[in-house]
Amino acid sequence: MTMSEALPIPGPSPVQPALPLPAMQAAGLCKAYGPITVLTDIALDIRAGEVHAIIGENGAGKSTLMKLLSGHVLPTAGHLAMAGQPVEFADAVAAEAAGVVLVHQEILLAGDLTVAENLFLGRELTRGPMVDDRAMNRRAAEILASIGAHCHPRDPVSGLPLAQRQLVQIARALLEPRKVVIFDEPTAVLANDEVAALLAVVRGLRDRGAAVLYISHRLDEVEALADRITVLRDGRMIGTWPARGLTQRDMAELMVGRKLDMLYPPRRPAASGDPLLRVQDLSVDHGAVQGSFAVRPGEVLGIGGMIGSGRTEMFEGLMGLRPATGSAVLNGTPMVHRSVGAWQAAGLVYLTEDRKGKGLLLDEPLGPNLTLQALTEVHPRLTLDRKAEGAAVAKAVADYDIRVRSVHLDAGQLSGGNQQKLLLAKVMLTDPQVVIIDEPTRGIDIGNKNQIYDFIDALVRTGKACIVISSELPELVGLSDRVLVMRGGRIVAELTGDQITEQNVVYAATSGEGHGPQGAQP
Amino acid sequence: MTAAVASQSAGPRRIRWADMGPFIALAVVVLAGVMINSSFLSGTNIANVVTRSAFVAIIAVGATFVISSGGLDLSVGSMMAFVTGIMILAMNRLEPSMGGYAIVAGAGIGLVVGALCGLLNGLIVTVGKIEPFIATLGTMGIFRALITWMSDGGSIPIERSLREPYRPVYFGDVLGIPVPVILTLVVVLVGAFVLYRTKYGRRCMAAGSNADVARFSGVSVAKVRTTAFVIQGLCVAIAAICYIPRLGAATPTTGQLWELQVITAVVIGGTALRGGKARVWGTVAGALILEVIANLMVLSNMVSEYLVAAVQGVIIILAMLAHRFIK
């Protein structure tokens, strides 16, 4: 807050002293799809040996800008130059030939092929007419070692954890020397320790003289990594600043264009009363994940731990989406038969972390998506009740502030934040007592995050309970009344009150002995 | 803000040209028919074409369910032959005691057998967790072998005394509209109703569009897919009921390669082969397109009718290309 008065006025970047020619320069860059303008008049200079972060809310045009710079999309107007020489990329291949590469957000690897085969896919090394596996494996091992990846060139990609796959994807981009490396939200799916490793890779690239362009929603990463920061808002450039002068709050306010209210809701009074949900000796995937826990009315129970610690598996098991044993009591009623439908009827819902893969039908409009989980409630008769569905959609759009041009758009055409709000509206349609939200704000912008936090707060203040599984430590700490930390498929710590700090969560999740007995009870 | 959002969201649904494709294509082939041969539009020829397309259309309505729910059924042609054989055997056995009512009883048995065949396919796919392509490739062979065995490699003819009372089911008409056409219309209307107006239709789309999303939303994907296969079996049985009076016998070649025509009709009708989008009326247009083209080749003498299947093959590829470009 105090920094905000000292913020530079949004506008053209302050002129820097004469430097060697920037590795890449953009001037007056515009992109329009038909009548819709997504980017207007972007001017950037990207320098060798520097990490340049691009931040902005979803829909601000960050990804489009990256694609323009890397030849995946052609600009409507404007110029690019590399080392002072004008360039024009016909496509991504031309950009790569010129030394500019984009590391994609989604992991695009062939799972059945080995790491080395993936690295050299489409540009295999050959000896005569034969592919030269030995040379490729050797070269792959070098590249992997240089970025600190621990996988073997002959490992099949399908068996690798997500973080290693991400490194393979980066290795593929770095197979040849690059002048400009562009990262599009590389840490969106990584856990904290994996993020640290990735940041080290990025720093290594910078120190070896590459110009790095870095997009991320995680402002803590940007703060830790960036030398300069460019802010985009609504397809326009707000400005470029040296990173040193900006705090995370400054960045957030520049992105949103207004002062942020407190991001996290104020502390609630301690929850009391009998647990709404009590789970005893839950054992999922034949014992791989085990735990007992309970949540009280008016309480946000946070679940922390690294990705792979069994958090998602535990709750998918509870929902009957994985093989599981154990007992559960919801609102005094023992739940013997556990399925998504039975839980929902009893008043408990689970919102998946994978909104595109398991949450929404991307090719269907809002209505079918919204009511899929509550078909019998919305459509009590034999035939579908279009009017009731329309009313439910209108109510969801208003209540959850889902911003759409038309409700007939397919869910896949919504921004991440609006998709998440649609998914939230979908599971809330039957007015559940207990809501389990797995990664409530993954990959969505700060404005939408704020709304979702407020929603969770409002929910538990009405005497309901919410379980929040999150990899984002500030979120976990800021939202939760109590935190259970998981490691290796077990609950290893229970944190309450002042114990809930990022340090304690990380300590318990990685190495600590924990602050409570295993299977902590409230 | 509430009001602003609400008014902003009330846009009209846009007509998607891709959805109109099959009907435009049908109009084009009909137009071509008129130009090639003036007798194409004669009442008898049109009735003939539409009637002949009835079998494929009826079975293809069932296939629309299976495919849009994320399955595939290659066994429909063989199943058709098998059900036809069972029905004729049942009718012949019942004829001495029941007379003409043997037809009704036999038809009932046919529907039950068809549903059971579909159930078998469905359970192999969902409970056995075997790819639909492989599962129905297996049952396709089984049904085909069974009819060959039942007919001893020859044919299973229906009793002479049943032919006359059964005849109208294929050759009859109501107010000038052939019975098979009426039957097709009923099947299509019921199919469209179930797919577009009921909760089952929604679940079908969800299961085909993304099985994980369906599962996480509490939809039993196995139940939905099995039901789709049963519906397919019923449609095959309805087609068989209508088919028997046409030739009066079941043979080892009955319904041969119909599965390809059926899948072609569904796919050129705009239903996505990967599931999640069902176009029942498009399927009917697809079945008509196939039959009109075959009819034109017979009428025109420009291309040998031995090449009908080749032309239909070209059509499915063109339809897919056109679909991609319209998108």
TrEMBL record, chain B:
Membrane topology: Multi-pass membrane protein
Major localization class: membrane
Pfam families (alphabetical): BPD_transp_2 (PF02653)
Tagged with keyword Transmembrane helix: yes
CDD domains the UniProt entry points to: TM_PBP1_transp_AraH_like
Bilayer-spanning residue ranges: 21-40, 46-67, 74-92, 98-120, 132-150, 170-196, 229-249, 280-300, 306-326
Compartments (UniProt record): Cell membrane
GO molecular function: transmembrane transporter activity
A single Gene Ontology CC term: plasma membrane
Keywords: Cell membrane, Membrane, Transmembrane, Transmembrane helix
PANTHER family in the record: ABC TRANSPORTER PERMEASE PROTEIN YPHD-RELATED-RELATED (PTHR32196), RIBOSE IMPORT PERMEASE PROTEIN RBSC (PTHR32196:SF72)
Protein's name according to its UniProt entry: ABC transporter permease
Protein's organism: Frigidibacter albus
